[in-house]
Amino acid sequence: MPPRGRARRSAALALVGAVWVGLGASPAWSQDSASDPNPGNLTLTGGIDFLNAYLFRGIPQDDTGVVMWPYGDLGIAVHSGDGALKTIGVNVGLWNSLHTGQAGSDGPTRELWYESDFYATFGLGFGKGTSAGVTYTAYTSPNGSFNTVREVSFKFALDDRVGVWRVAPRPYAIIARELDGQADGGAEEGTYLELGASPGFPLAGVTVSVPLRAGFSLGDYYEGVSGDERFGFFSVAGVVTVPLSSMPTRVGSWNIHGGVEYVRLGDRNAEILGDTSKVIGSIGIGLSY
Amino acid sequence: MFVTYRVRRSAFALMAVVGLMLASAPAFAQDKPDPNPGALTLTGSIDFLNQYMFRGIRQNSTGIATWPAMDLGIAAYSGDGGLKSVGINFGTWNSLHSGDTGADSDDSGLGCACGKLWYESDFYASLGLGFGGGTSFTTTYTAYTSPNNGFTTVKEIMFKFALDDSSRLGKAAVKPYIAIAREFDAEPGVGQADGGENAGTYLEIGFAPGYSASKASIAFPIKIGLSASDYYELITPTGVEDNKFGYFSIAGIVTVPLGAASSFGAWNIHGGVEYQKLGTTTEFFNGGESNQVIGSFGIGFSY
């Protein structure tokens, strides 16, 4: 069993991200806007996922019991235009991790609620599918398993669905800087780099996506006994999203989704986990409205 | 210094009133197309208060309490029979404290004594049934948790009967209700609002008269909180006594719409003053003071 302590949330926004991709490509959203139950500027997204393990950017959090991730996001479309700046969006949301295992109700705290994150994002969309966003996140632990980590991150992404590839890779890069508190429980606040891609395609009424990503320390993000390790993890996943209706309903577009993620860890994270790799299975229900 | 850890929140009253006023706000009477004709409704707010009283039980003695809240309502059914509507709501309600039970707790020694702001986070889910004549019956499960360990988690189930008499009485409507809430999964000193010996049962009777004009709305919620059993326990030299009377509250709240409803929903600012008269147990928790005045100001939206 891996040590937990101060570390936090994992590798798994990949799956959530993949579901977003799935929602975006869902046939339900391609229907005539006359059937849209919510033509306004606010969008609600939420869901709950169930997993067998939780790694935050490769840092082991818990692989005992069941991990549950209820989350909700409110998106505000502030601006939409035809100039160089196509869109401005603001998102605020909560993401939570509930654990029945050692990090939660079966552990020393006896309390289920391991993690609660609040985030706010300001995003800009440009031409040719490029976008940039800045996100502030406060990672907190209601059951006191780790100290609050505050972080600002910058994401650059390219949605090349209209590009030359039939299966667009949708590459992105994230740089995150810890402002206060640390994911690795180390000596210094760290800087994190993530490079990834989220290719996805529709297949027989469902959406299949294959998110790939790699996490690196640009400085003090994966501190261990032998110093700061550059390579944190590499992950590849397969996620299937099945819409629960062919068109948006009065209660939005719902889906069930599930997937498997393979995570290959760097030495520092592998030492904590006690293994160099981890396979994570997940299944969940999602909503977009 | 009074006891604040293990006890919790008050004030759904203000939020409920603001919710009522949003529903009847003139902004919604505009001819603009509804930005959200579907069956989901999102409501949110943030309020700032000088004092946080949970059903008369004081939660902080210094600093400011900030209440961010969000609710998702699902209109599951609407019909013309005996059962007019079925609604489901989920939500989160939070209380952030800048004072002795929050950011200053490392100085006060209360709760976790860790200087963490986030005193309370509640999750709730409710099933509401609407019947003819404006009557409704709602069942709500609430988990009151404290991220900064200010109190132990309290789990509660509540049943509320309400009458919206505005169709019959118009501007004279008083909208009476009665709610009964039962704590469960509790132990002595754990999982209870009063931090007492036994899980309690709470009874609330209230009214929410109000008046809406073109530029603003005003409401005067009145309520009384009682212990049906073990809800306001007080440990005395002779044992534990359960005091029936918890508190009486009357408030005045003004809500001003921020323009007409738009594609971003209907926004408002609101503010008010609440007076509470406390019973024996709640007076003890309030440091021996039997009166409490609460001022609040906030921003809300409904979409």
Helices and strands, with pairings:
The complex is a heterodimer of chains A (289) and B (303).
Chain A: H1 13-25, E1 42-51, E2 54-56, E3 59-62, E4 67-80, E5 85-99, E6 113-126, E7 130-140, E8 149-158, E9 171-180, E10 191-197, E11 200-203, E12 206-209, E13 212-219, E14 223-224, E15 227-228, E16 231-243, E17 253-265, H2 267-273, E18 277-288
Antiparallel strand pairs in A: 1-4, 1-18, 2-3, 4-5, 5-6, 6-7, 7-8, 8-9, 9-10, 10-13, 11-12, 12-16, 13-16, 14-15, 16-17, 17-18
Chain B: H1 12-24, E1 40-49, E2 53-54, E3 57-58, E4 65-78, E5 83-97, H2 105-108, E6 118-131, E7 135-145, E8 154-163, H3 166-169, E9 177-184, E10 201-207, E11 210-212, E12 217-219, E13 222-229, E14 233-236, E15 239-242, E16 245-257, E17 266-278, H4 280-285, E18 291-302
Antiparallel strand pairs in B: 1-4, 1-18, 2-3, 4-5, 5-6, 6-7, 7-8, 8-9, 9-10, 10-13, 11-12, 12-16, 13-16, 14-15, 16-17, 17-18
Structural account:
The complex is a heterodimer of chains A (289) and B (303). Chain A is mainly β. Chain A has helices at 13-25, 267-273, and strands at 42-51, 54-56, 59-62, 67-80, 85-99, 113-126, 130-140, 149-158, 171-180, 191-197, 200-203, 206-209, 212-219, 223-224, 227-228, 231-243, 253-265, 277-288. In chain A, the strands form three sheets. A twelve-stranded antiparallel barrel of chain A has the order 1-4-5-6-7-8-9-10-13-16-17-18. Chain A has a two-stranded antiparallel ribbon with strand order 2-3. Chain B is mostly beta strands. Chain B is 9% helix and 50% strand. Chain B contains four helices and 18 strands. Chain B has a twelve-stranded antiparallel β-barrel. Chain B has a two-stranded antiparallel sheet with strand order 2-3. In chain B, strands 14-15 form a two-stranded antiparallel ribbon. In chain B, β11 (210-212) and β12 (217-219) form a beta hairpin. Residues 1-30 of chain B have low confidence and may be disordered. Chain A binds chain B through residues 37-42, 44, 46, 72, 74, 76, 94, 111, 113, 116, 140, 142, 144, 148, 249-252, 289, and chain B through 33, 35-40, 42, 44, 70, 72, 74-75, 92, 112, 116, 118, 121, 145, 147, 149, 153, 262-265, 303.
